[in-house]
Amino acid sequence: MKPYRIETTCVQGGYTPKNGEPRQIPIVQSTTFKYDTGEDMGKLFDLEASGYFYTRLQNPTNDYVAAKIADLEGGTAAMLTSSGQAANFFAMFNLASCGDHMVASSSIYGGTFNLISVTMAKMGIETTFVSPDCTDEELNAAFRPNTKLVFGETIANPALTVLDIEQFAKAAHAHGVPLIIDNTFATPVNCRPIEWGADIVTHSTTKYMDGHGVSVGGAIVDGGKFDWMAHKDKFPGLCTPDESYHGITYAEKFGMDGAFITKCTAQLMRDFGSIQSPQHAFYLNLGLESLHVRMERHCENGQKVAEFLQKHPKVERVSYCGLPGDKYYERAKKYLPKGSCGVVSFELKGGREAASVFMNSLRLAAIETHVADARTCCLNPASTTHRQMNDEQLKAAGVPAGLVRMSCGLENADDLIDDIAQALDRVE
Ligand SMILES: *Cc1c(COP(=O)(O)O)cnc(C)c1O
Q: Domain 6-286 adopts which CATH fold?
């Protein structure tokens, strides 16, 4: 039988109950698992048999949901983490260690930028940032002999740039390293990066996947296509024996399909412990069951709001890749044919003061440091996340003082537009 289409996988993927078993994914609320003999358990510790022994490493509820996300992305294996930050850190640190180097798009989530440029730098991992719109020459020039991976976001939060995934994958592979793509904003419903050459996909499941603003979480998916053994010298962690697991070589024992996630679980989850709770995995699965239906509405509302804003005299400029004439319109047609997401950013002509009056006048859209949930929310970076910067610095960072990021929820689009219109009326 053919693999199911993405809508069916959203609803039914990852868990198939047998005769008489619970229809909905069971929440296995147990830290530990019981065995008849010490030998049985010893085999699990040696990775000789697969099974559960302690929820810091693995739990059945998490595994059902991870299997669904792997199917959605067209990958071979996946794991859940406690947050998107943990997912991105684990995905990168599973390949790069002290003395190594990474290449990353400069247009990425602020938290990931800090993780890479401050915290991982302190760990001795250096990164060269490149523009998401760089030429092949500029991209290739960023690599060094000790480069271990390339990182970017399908649709960047908050800049809304769209990455040329094929271009970045080609450069990564030409240098013998994998491409990691954070696919949080697009979700697999709108883009499946592995089909465009990405090797590892990460998510902040906190956003659209959960979709209701109830639980922080992350996921890592392996596409299973990167041949670690063909680049043995670059990836000793995967291709030489792990003494903390009795000399197992991950790439040999678990193959291209399973080596990356097995190592990430066995080493990083064991040592850092950023596991998602089974209860949160259950909530995440409820979100996934309607992801395909919600994304369609988020995109429809984003498009309508962007079109309204673009025509409004008090709006200087709108960024939304679904608008003809947007810098990323053509690239989005290729990578995001079904739509991008519900996040629209726009600049008010009156700067910081106008943004403040506008936001305080909104009735439906709430002021929140969040995006991608069912309720529309918005943020003025100049007065919140970037408030330490003056107007000049804001401009240089590409976040002018009058910029508003609006995450369109699932409400009626006309109500959202009415709300925006009355708030714009109050701006001088
Ligand atoms: C929010 C976000 C993250 C961080 O995820 P958390 O779940 O908040 O830790 C990473 N990448 C992107 C693109 C995000 O939007």
A: Aspartate Aminotransferase; domain 2 (3.40.640)
